[in-house]
Automatic annotation (TrEMBL):
Pfam families xref list: DUF4533
Superkingdom per UniProt: Eukaryota
Compositional bias annotation for Polar residues: 166-176
InterPro entries for this protein: DUF4533
Region annotation Disordered: where it falls in the sequence: 160-181
Protein name as catalogued: Chromosome 12 open reading frame 60
Species for this entry: Microcebus murinus
Length: 245
C-alpha cells in the first residue's frame, strides 16, 4: 500500500473528525442562540438534540427550521416595533412642534430626527441587520445538496470517551480516538458516499470533497458564534445600563 494512499486515508479521517466536531459546535451555538431567542422574545422554539445516530440531513433540517422560525419572528417583531416607534414618536414630536411652530422646514427636520431615533430590541436588531438568518439558511441549504446527508454523525467519528456535551471544540477534553476497526469502517462509508464515478483514487477524491465541505462550514460556524457572542454581550450591556440608572 503506497504512502500516498495512506496519506489520503489520514486526510479523510482528519477531515471526518473535524466535520464531526463542526456539527457538535453548530449544535452548541444554535442551541445557545435558541435559548437567548426564547428568553428574550417569549417564544418556544425547540432546541436541537443531536445524537451520534442522527443523520446529517436530520441535523441540518432541524437547524433550518430553527432559523426559519427565528426569521419569521424577527421580521414580524421588527416591522411591529418600527411601526409602533414611528407612530408614537412621530405623533409626539409633531404635536410638540406644531404647538411651537408652523414652519414646514422645522417640521421636516423634526421628522428626520424621529426616524433616526427608532430603536428595536437588541436581539431583533442584531439578527435583522445583514439578513444573518437568511444567509445561514442559504448556506445550510447548499450543504444539504451534498452526498453525505444520509450518513449518521457516528459515520464520521466515534468518541470512545464521552466528552463534555456543553463545550465547544476548543474546550473539549481529548479522547483516545476510535479503534482501528472503527477507522476502517468510517473510511469505507465515507468513500462509498463521497467517491465520484470512475475515480482513479476514491480515497483522494473523498478526502478532497470532505475537506472542501469542512472549509465551507467554517464561515457558517464563525457567523453563528459571533452572532451569539454579540447578542450575549449586547444584552449584558443593556442590563448593566438599566441597573446603573
Amino acid at each position: 500500500m503506497s504512502s500516498e494512499s495512506e496519506n489520503d486515508k489520514e486526510r479523510l479521517v482528519q477531515a471526518a473528525k473535524t466535520f464531526f466536531f463542526h456539527i457538535k459546535d453548530l449544535t452548541f451555538f444554535t442551541n445557545t442562540l435558541t435559548e437567548l431567542f426564547n428568553n428574550n422574545m417569549n417564544t418556544q422554539i425547540l432546541s436541537m438534540a443531536v445524537k451520534d445516530n442522527s443523520t446529517i440531513k436530520d441535523s441540518f433540517e432541524h437547524m433550518l427550521r430553527i432559523f426559519k422560525d427565528m426569521q419569521s419572528v424577527v421580521k414580524e417583531k421588527y416591522n411591529e416595533m418600527q411601526k409602533e416607534s414611528l407612530c408614537s414618536k412621530f405623533a409626539s414630536a409633531m404635536c410638540s412642534m406644531v404647538e411651537k411652530s408652523t414652519n414646514v422646514k422645522e417640521l421636516q427636520e423634526s421628522a428626520k430626527e424621529v426616524f433616526k431615533n427608532v430603536h428595536t430590541p437588541v436581539i431583533v436588531s442584531v439578527l435583522h441587520n445583514g439578513n444573518i438568518l437568511g444567509n445561514l439558511e442559504s448556506s445550510l441549504s447548499l450543504l444539504m445538496t451534498l452526498p453525505i446527508m444520509n450518513l449518521q454523525l457516528s459515520d464520521f467519528y466515534r468518541e470512545d470517551n464521552k466528552e463534555q456535551s456543553e463545550a465547544t471544540t476548543s474546550q473539549k477534553t481529548k479522547s483516545p480516538g476510535p479503534s482501528r476497526a472503527t477507522v476502517v469502517d468510517i473510511l469505507k462509508k465515507l468513500q462509498d458516499a463521497l467517491k465520484p464515478k470512475n475515480a482513479n483514487n476514491p480515497t483522494e477524491s473523498a478526502a478532497d470533497l470532505l475537506e472542501q465541505i469542512v472549509k465551507d462550514m467554517g464561515p457558517i460556524l464563525e457567523i453563528l458564534q459571533k452572532v451569539t457572542n454579540s447578542i450575549e454581550t449586547d444584552i449584558s450591556m443593556s442590563f448593566k445600563k438599566v441597573n446603573d440608572k
